Amino acid sequence: MNRYMLKSEPVLIDEELLQEAVLQRLRQNQARRIATAEGINFREILKLHLDYRNILVISHLWEFTSLAHLDLNNNLIEKIEGLDCLVNLMHLNLSFNSIEKIDGLESLLKLEVLNLTNNKISVIENMDTLEKLTHFCIANNHLGQLDNVLYLRKFKKLFTLNFYGNPLSKDDDYKVFIAAYFPELRYLDYRLLDEKTKNEASIKYHYVLEKMRHEELRLQQADEAEQSQRAEVKLHTDAFVEFLNGSYLFKSMFKDDPEAETLRCGPGVAPLFQTFEHQIVELCVHLFETGLAEHKRREMEVNSFVSSQTKVVEDYQQIASQILAKFEQQHKERIVELQQMSDPDLLSIKIKHCNDEINQLCKSLMALDFELVRQLEDIIKMFDTNISGMVGNFIETVQGIFAQCRDVEDNYHEKVREIAVATLENVAKDDLEEDMPDDVKMLFTDRDTVMDALATGHENHLLKINDRETRLVTRVNDWKMALIKGIEDKELKQSRMRISDIHRYADFLREQLELLQWHHE
């Protein structure tokens, strides 16, 4: 009997408990012996049973990244936690515990079966990410509000629901209510939902359901629109041209220009201002469209690189597999021959020959890996050249467009300055051809204030243009460098892993021969 089942006090999950639980599931003696001798790789475990162990806290499960089935039923668990790394989990049994709140399930995107029977839960909540849920059992809890069940309507794949033993299940309308709001449900409380109940539910709740469907459709459309908008913003950001498809830059130029509004009221300035805005927006939109087009070109180049890289690696793997298959067939025959030998001297000669063959295998695989590295370096170098050329051309275009923005600003500034000088003279002579607001007229009584306002505004406008240009150029350069470095670092890591695998396999073969020789001695 398991030593943990003998304990009555709470138990914490630790390495020893996990190893024992895994070994218990390895029913075949050989598999158990191998696991005991070589150690257990938790990352390869698909099922884990930790039921009936008085476990108080869920923990130490971060290595079980491949786990698909987890049983934690009949324990003392009070809180759902420690499951963040179980991204491949499909079946989770937490029944017969002391859980009061549904929580901690955000990472379980593949979960299909969730059993929370016999706990202390009073609200169905915090399950939004479980889109693949098909079976949900929450019998014998404290659910009291029938309307709370409607939270589950978002899970379109639900096949089975079980609310038996909850206060809400005693409602006279319980079965018909569930059948109405979950028309695709097949089983309720482990019993088949018959057509008679479904028809009765459809008639009774027809108008309410229609209203709810319309509201759900409205919310769905709003959510889709929001997601589409987020995707669009992300695309623009990835292309480094976010908020350049309109007047955002232009408005930002005048945001910190307190005298701009007053100066625009000067005679003849308004038409100039409108033309100025139109020209800046037109240049920004041109830059925006160019940025999206360049982003698409870069994406195509990256995809082409990945395809070329994948093809080279696949070719390498095919040749390496052929070399290994041929070697392993011959090595297997040599091992059989060695096992039948009785002459120790001849055995030593044959083992030396086998070691020579292993060394030759290493040389062949290393040479093949060296060739792979050389080909990948050539592909990466070509990709670096191509993507650098694209980025360089894009930056030249960006700098050219922003230079035009500065020219437009300079031109606007000069024309407004000319108007301001003339207006100052006319105000001084009290010779205005048109009426001006009092605050504008007051401004033009002080030449220094007007000139300072114009100069400050001009400097601020240029600063905003320069800042946006610098941000764009810096980000696209940083992206390129990070991309190439990431590819090179990843390739170096994979190359080291391949070489390590070759040496590890060779060591295993040599140990096999040493063990064989030791047995003969």
From the N-terminal CA to the C-terminal CA, the straight-line distance is 42 Å
Count of discrete structural domains? 3
Strand line-up in the sheet with most strands: 2-4-5-6-7-8-9-10
Rg for CA atoms: 37 Å
Task: Return the average pLDDT rounded to an integer.
Answer: 88
Low-confidence stretches: 1-7, 28-38
> Percent helix among the residues?
55-70%
Share in β-strands: 5-15%
Query: Could you say which overall geometry the principal axes of the C-alpha atoms support?
Result: flat
The total beta strand count reads 10
Secondary-structure class: mainly alpha
Q: What is the chain-wise order of helices and strands? A: EHHEEEEEEEHEEHHHHHHHH
Tally of contiguous helical segments: 11
* Biggest beta sheet summary: 8 strands, mixed
Task: Record the SSE blueprint.
Blueprint: E1 11-12, H1 15-25, H2 29-38, E2 47-49, E3 55-57, E4 69-71, E5 91-93, E6 113-115, E7 135-137, E8 160-162, H3 174-181, E9 187-188, E10 191-192, H4 195-204, H5 206-238, H6 248-255, H7 260-264, H8 269-339, H9 344-429, H10 438-443, H11 447-520
Parallel strand pairs: 1-3, 2-4, 4-5, 5-6, 6-7, 7-8, 8-9
Antiparallel strand pairs: 9-10
Helix pairs in contact: 3-4, 6-11, 8-9, 9-11
What does this protein structure show overall?
The protein is mainly alpha-helical and 521 residues long. The chain folds into 3 domains: 194 residues, Ribonuclease Inhibitor (Leucine-rich repeat, LRR (right-handed beta-alpha superhelix), Alpha-Beta Horseshoe), CATH 3.80.10.10; 33 residues; 273 residues, no CATH class. It is built from 11 helices and 10 strands. Helix 3 crosses helix 4 and helix 8 packs antiparallel against helix 9.
